[in-house]
Specification:
binds thymidine-5'-diphosphate, about 450 residues, 7-stranded mixed β-sheet, binds magnesium ion, Ribosomal Protein S5, domain 2, alpha/beta
Length: about 450
């Protein structure tokens, strides 16, 4: 398509159309198309420079391997083993969660050895310097810039031959290519596209901060997420000092990797042993509590599951699930009712995963059933016990993936007894852990409450 032909861009999804229509053909929103003078989004250097693209043999792509450490192993892990040269990453998260703090720390860690430009359209250089001083950061190769002209930022990054460019935030940036004000869909699109071209041409790694809307998505057209290589979300439980960083898109590594951080007086610290976050348990065993090994973000995590049952005063008992699917809980209760002697039918049931993480995998079934059973009986489970496993509708206990890894993790955290699905029990056993393999829910309950 000719470069200066006008196109119509949807302010909702960012989709392009060649003619004006009342309804966007991509997302079906009404009255969202606006005319822009078309600099088409080109995400590769060749397309941007107008030169014909050169084919490359698969074996001979040296750029594919270049990775730069960001100074914290939790961070490198989420990026898929450091940040790729010439890659563009988008970091989203609610205001105040710590995006600027994290990236200033990253800028300083990288800037200790390589040129880095930290450009902010939100804070003055004085404010950033003050924060850097509070965080006791020193980085001789780090340059700070407070500006919202994207062209000025890219020119400086070019002049300094920056290995890393941080843009905080995309919603405050303005490019001369588009006429609208910062934060408009057109500006967001053009600024991101320009940064992608800049990164691919010069090999500079770019990290862009993006604000999120009320429902948690990165504000602006969905197109931003398509343009960049990596999309990361920074998240926290309300009021908690712990932060989770998750990659929802990664062209260079696995998605859904989780990194854990804690916000301290001295900025963000990585949490190397995240299981400890979710295990601030009452030292006295109490009914209705059990530790399970979940697997989330590519790693095993020990999480306490809690259940509370109470004789119901309603015609239909209440069932409340925090962190697990409510339908899954309803199914579990039906299985317990039919296939064990512990019947929750006349009870209100509340279940909760401590720490605020939501787990969708089925390995929560067995520990939940045992915690509910423990609350029904009013009998505490052994404090050294951990369980995991899926429950089938006929009361059978089914295996879950990564059984051995889960057993290793519970051993590492000092637990000595595990109730696991038969197929997950290792033949050689695990030194220091008494593994009890069960085939049915009834067997599991018997094993859990035997003394
Ligand atoms: P910030 O990085 O400005 O968040 P974002 O860029 O995502 O909006 O984080 C600001 C919050 O972090 C603020 O509430 C104060 C807190 N904070 C600390 O607790 N310790 C620190 O060392 C710093 C720099 C900030
Ligand atoms: Mg900020």
């Amino acid at each position: 398509m000719a470069r200066n032909q006008p196109v119509y861009v949807c302010s909702s999804c960012g989709g392009e159309s060649l003619k004006w229509q009342g309804q966007c053909p991509h997302c079906s929103e009404w009255n969202t198309l606006t005319r822009v003078l078309g600099v088409r989004v080109a995400s590769t250097a060749a397309a941007a420079s107008g030169a014909p693209a050169m084919p490359v043999a698969l074996a001979a792509d040296p750029a594919a391997e270049e990775r730069m450490s960001l100074g914290m192993s939790e961070l490198d892990r989420v990026f898929g083993g450091g940040i790729g040269a010439g890659s563009v990453s988008l970091l989203g998260g609610e205001p105040g969660i710590g995006k600027s703090t994290l990236l200033l720390q990253v800028a300083a860690a990288v800037g200790a050895g390589r040129p880095v430009l930290y450009a902010s359209g939100e804070e003055s250089t004085q404010q950033i310097t003050q924060r850097a001083r509070r965080l006791a950061l020193t980085a001789p190769h780090l340059t700070l810039l407070s500006d919202n002209s994207l062209e000025a930022i890219m020119a400086l990054a070019n002049e300094r031959r920056a290995a890393l460019l941080i843009v905080d935030s995309i919603q405050t940036m303005q490019t001369a290519v588009a006429e609208s004000s910062p934060g408009s869909p057109q500006q967001l699109r053009e600024c991101t596209a320009a940064l992608v071209r800049f990164a691919k041409q010069g090999g500079t790694s770019v990290i862009i901060v993006g604000h999120v809307t009320k429902d948690g998505a990165i504000a602006g057209p969905k197109l931003l997420e398509h343009l960049v290589d990596t999309v990361l979300y920074f998240d926290a439980d309300a009021g908690s000092r712990f932060r989770m960083l998750r990659a929802t898109k990664n062209r260079f590594g696995p998605v859904n990797e989780l990194g854990f951080f804690a916000m301290t007086d001295a900025g963000l610290r990585e949490v190397r042993n995240p299981s400890a976050i979710f295990l601030s348990r009452n030292p006295q065993p109490v009914p209705g509590s059990l530790v399970m090994v979940a697997r989330d973000g590519g790693r095993p995590l020990l999480i306490e599951v809690q259940a509370l049952t109470d004789a119901t005063r309603f015609s239909a008992p209440r069932r409340v699930a925090q962190g697990v699917d409510a339908n899954r809980l309803a199914m579990l209760l039906a299985v317990m009712n039919r296939h064990s002697r512990l019947s929750p039918a006349e009870h209100d049931v509340y279940v909760n995963l401590v720490g605020g993480l939501a787990i969708s995998e089925t390995a929560t079934d067995l520990p939940l059933a045992l915690a509910i059973g423990s609350s029904l009986k009013g009998e505490a489970l052994d404090a050294t016990l951990v369980a995991f496993g899926e429950l089938g509708l006929t009361g059978e206990v089914r295996p879950v993936p990564y059984g051995e890894e889960r057993l290793k993790e519970l051993h590492k955290q000092g637990y000595t007894r595990a109730i696991v699905p038969q197929q997950n029990a290792p033949r050689q056993g695990v030194p220091g852990v008494k593994v009890q393999a069960v085939a049915t829910l009834a067997e599991a309950i018997e094993a859990a409450f035997q003394r």
